[in-house]
Structure formats: C-alpha cells, structure tokens
Specification:
It is a single chain. The chain is an alpha/beta fold. About 40% of the residues lie in helices and about 20% in strands. It has helices spanning about 10-25, 35-45, 60-70, 85-95, 110-130, 165-180, 185-195, 205-215; strands at about 5, 25-30, 50-55, 80, 100-105, 140-145, 145-150, 155-160, 160-165, 225-230, 235. Helix 2 (about 35-45) packs parallel to helix 3. The longest helix is centred in the middle third of the chain and has 21 residues, at about 110-130.
Length: about 240
C-alpha cells in the first residue's frame, strides 16, 4: 500500500485530502507544519512514497521543507499545493525540487490523477534503481559564444560578467549542451531534468528556456544557441 505524507495546516482541507486518498486505497499520514513534516520524513523516509506539501506553513515554509528534503538526497516525489498562482511562485517551487505544482482551489479528480502519476514515477525509479540515465554523458564545463560555464563549481560568465543561475537552470543547460546538435523533445527534458512524466502537460520547460535565453543569448528574441524546433522540441548549438 502506497504511503502518502500530507503536509497541510488548514485542518479541514488536510482532513479532506486524507479522507479522499484513503478512499482510493492509500495509507495517509497528516501533519500540520514544516518542522513536523521533516521529523516524520527523518523517521519514516523509506516508507513514504509521496509528499503533498502546502507552501504556507507555520514554522517553516513548504519551499524550505522541499529544499531540505532534496539537500538530504531524498528523491521522494513532491506535489506542492498553494493559493499562490504567480509564475515566479511556481518556478521557485520547481527550483527547490518540487515535481509538480497545483494551485488552490484544485479539482479533486486532477489531484488524484497527479498522485497516481507521481506514484508511478516513484515505482519506476525504484524498479530501475534510480532516475533514468541521460542520453549522453554530462559535460563538466563548456565555452560557447560569449558564455563560459563550469557545472562543477556552478560558475557562469557571459562576456566576463558573472551570471547567477539556479541549480535547475544549470541542470537544464547542462543537459542541452551535453546533447548538442540533437533535437530534444519537451517530454525528454521533463523526464531527465525534472524527473517528471514526459506526458505531463506543463509549460515549465518553455519558461525555463525563455529564462536561459535572457541570461546567455545576446538577443533573446533571436537566439543562436538555444533553438526552438517547431512541434519537435529544443536544440542547442555552440555556434550558428
């Protein structure tokens, strides 16, 4: 029986989620704040198959909880719930390691569908011994156009100016460069960079590509390195 940890401080909502998940046959543990969630994870991590995590929690935000989980090396799937719907809130959630993000109020059927999807992802990772392997060995550093990047030290320079990138932006750029010249479908990027189902309908890949272009392209509106291949995906080229 899959075990789901629900972290929600609104008691009526937490109890409702727990009730509906249990009705689907899942074992559910409900806690109401960030520190309690981390204590439960520390004690029961091997038995937890999915975490449903609210963002606005007493004691510790959901962002901090998720980041702590990832810093401990735990790859338990995390589904974030939040009343905050701005793009930057969603992006921050993905940056700290969330697998999926749902805005409140949400549709129950959609929640149950995402839960099923993430549990299948978890089962697949366990069966294969971890996340799927990338299509090519990951490069440690790269120099193209105006850009120099060291993925080991997380240093990025554009025309000798230091540029800050998030870990997820670096991971995406590293994957694209490592597979340069090849058209990479969005589904593959979701799977290899975000460890999500490639069938998931989301614009997170497009949003991150747009942000990378602003950081490294001389003219983001006319990119020469991060190219969009219509109806196919993205392709990285070192020179156009």
């Amino acid at each position: 029986m899959d075990h789901i940890l629900v972290v929600e401080d609104e008691e009526h909502l937490g109890v409702g989620i727990k009730y509906n998940l249990e009705a689907e046959g899942y074992r559910v543990t409900l806690v109401g704040d960030g520190p309690a969630a981390l204590r439960r994870i520390e004690h029961d991590a091997p038995s937890i198959d999915l975490i449903i995590l609210d963002l606005m929690l007493p004691g510790m935000s959901g962002y901090a909880v998720c980041e702590t989980i990832r810093n401990r090396g735990l790859q338990i799937p995390v589904l974030m719930l939040s009343a905050r719907t701005l793009a930057e809130d969603r992006t921050r959630g993905f940056n700290v390691g969330a697998n999926q993000y749902m805005a409140k109020p949400f549709d129950l059927d959609e929640l149950l569908s995402r839960v099923k999807n993430l549990l299948q992802l978890r089962a697949g990772m366990i069966a294969s011994g971890g996340p799927r392997k990338t299509k090519a060995p990951l490069v440690a550093d790269a120099h193209f156009g105006r850009v120099r990047v060291n993925f080991l030290t997380h240093e990025v320079h554009v025309e000798d100016e230091n540029v800050k990138m998030t870990p997820k932006e670096l991971k995406l750029l590293q994957y694209l460069i490592s597979n340069q010249g090849r058209v990479i479908p969005r589904g593959e990027l979701l799977s290899e960079v975000w460890e999500l189902s490639g069938n998931l309908q989301t614009r997170v890949v497009d949003q991150f590509i747009a942000r990378l272009r602003k950081l490294i392209e001389e003219n983001p509106a006319a990119p020469v390195h991060l190219l969009t291949i219509r109806d196919a995906g993205y392709r990285f080229v070192s020179d156009n």
